[in-house]
Amino acid sequence: MTETEPQFLIHQATHSFLQESIHFQIIQMNKTVFVWIGKSEARLGDMSVAMPAFGSNMAPSATGIFSKSVSEQSRNLARRLASKYKQQIYVSLDLSSPDDLLFVFVEKKLMEILKNVM
Fold first, then answer.
1. Position 111 confidence tier, pLDDT thresholds 50, 70, 90
2. Are strands 32-38 and 20-29 parallel, antiparallel or unpaired?
3. How far is the CA of 14 from the CAs of 8, 11, 26, 61, 95, in angstroms?
4. Mean pLDDT along residues 61-87
5. What residues pair up with 15 in beta bridges, in sequence order?
6. Per-residue pLDDT tens for 5-59?
7. Sheet of 61-66: strands edge to edge?
8. Which ranges constitute the DSSP H helices of 1-118?
9. How far apart are CA 90 and CA 78, in angstroms?
10. Measured on CA atoms in the order 111, 10, 85, 35, is the torsion positive or negative?
């Protein structure tokens, strides 16, 4: 059995949405990625985790870890990312408003960031 060296890579970015700063932080670990997206308060928000399925035809399992609302945005995003990257994905969203336009912007920018770092 071979040992794997622990490795943490941290990527940060800030993008503006309607004159408001949205911050992105991605922490890559061994076969795990933690994504935090939020505003200037820098708190953990709605947080979920997803695990890729063992079979190729199965959808990843996802669950909420903690949430302030009934929104499933972090869980759905974690599930899509786990399916795409075949890794365990944690997603924390602290966006304070469940604006659909904001979420589309956030997801687009996140995909651009992940394309460059993964």
1. very high
2. antiparallel
3. 20, 11, 12, 29, 13
4. 87
5. 22
6. 768 999 999 999 988 999 999 999 988 999 999 987 778 888 999 999 887 678 8
7. 9-17, 20-29, 32-38, 88-94, 46-51, 61-66
8. 73-85, 100-117
9. 6
10. negative
Token match 């770092």: residue?
A: 117
Residues listed for the chain? 118
118 is written with which tokens?
């993964």
Alpha-carbon distance 75 to 17, whole Å?
22
Sign of the C-alpha dihedral computed for residues 84, 44, 49 and 34 taken in this order:
positive
Alpha carbons 19 and 73: distance in angstroms, whole number:
23
Q: What is the DSSP letter of 73?
A: H
Q: How far apart are CA 43 and CA 112, in angstroms?
A: 23
